[in-house]
Write a structure and sequence with these properties.
single chain; about 425 residues; alpha/beta; Alkaline Phosphatase, subunit A; 10-stranded mixed β-sheet; two-stranded antiparallel sheet; 14 strands
Amino acid sequence: MLRRSLTLLLVVSLLLSALSFASARPEADSVILLIGDGMGFNHIELTRLALGGNPLAMQRLPYSGLVATHSADSPVTDSAAAATALAAGVKTNNGMLAVSPGGQRLETILERCLEKGKAAGLVTNDALWGATPAAFAVHLGSRGEYAEIARQLAESKVQVMLGCGADEMKPKAAGGARKDDLDLVKALQGRGYDVVTTREEMRKAARPQLVGLFGDEAPSVAEMTEAALARLEQSKRGFFLMVEECGSDGGGHGSDPLRVVRAVRSLDKTVQVAVDHARRRGRTLVLVTADHETGGLLIDAPARAPLLTRATASAREIVKQFSDNRANVAVVLKERAGVDDLTPAELEKIQKASNPTEAVLAVLSARAGVRWTGQGHHTGVPVRVFAFGPGAERFTGTLDNTQLSGLIAETLGLGTFPKP
């Protein structure tokens, strides 16, 4: 009887220990954070409407919320302060990268992941020294110090870094823009990185550490993300991957609905890549958000948004095909923008405009039922967050952008973040 009681006690003890271990085990070991630069709620809605009205991949994720974006010194943030809030969980002044308003260095969620033995990656179709990727691995008082940002990135322990441009990675003697003699490309190669400049080189690269410095023929954001995930998933302790699509910001600054739709569609394809990967791999949290809204986009006539998918070229490419006297405006817009009923007033507006690109975009915006209220600037409206995977339920309601990194740390079992 005593032996049976002791055996039962041992079994119960083992079960309790197993339950305790299971409850202490982090819900996820990896996270893919996708950021649409300047992607406001209406950027997403305009893209959904333009593509036929069905929910985008990001909109189909099971959890969503709103995110406030103000910076420490302004109700309207810039990308540097917003990315710092997302990366470090602390408000800073506009223009600052992962340092406090007083200049103190701030630990980022990427750096915490590296400290815990996870792999890390940065993907963008902007320059790697752009504000959003830089804020996750660089600490500087000014986002404009491109050469120093590039140096810090090259000396970081981030295993995969894929972006556009190589100027700040090479000295002038080697065809770059650096004023010093540092050749960061050679330094990276010396540390075991494959450094690639084309889609084909990226496809053939075999080393686990990869840097992409792409030119005009860059891979898509989805393709870069696939290449990054193929390497990062080899980490036994998981990974952190930040992916940025920068085009929606450029579209907002330029009051360009064509570019907005292209950019959000690009990010949405990448969201599907991330979700498919997370489903296969398991234990992976996928988050989609924005750093801020750009352009003050309003949608007045949702039914007219599909007009934007008729264009086969950007506004700049369309304008390049105008003759010197712009006598062929109607023909070009019919062929390249799908507009076959240009009114005399619209034609005159484009032909007489000092900036024909702006005039074309104004005509297309009006025809698509779109207005821009931000005069080409950032606005202070909240942005969306969408979530999938373990811990996704944390990202609901109204959040501040400083909360996201702490919730990521909680999901990954990384301890209190940021540190008190």
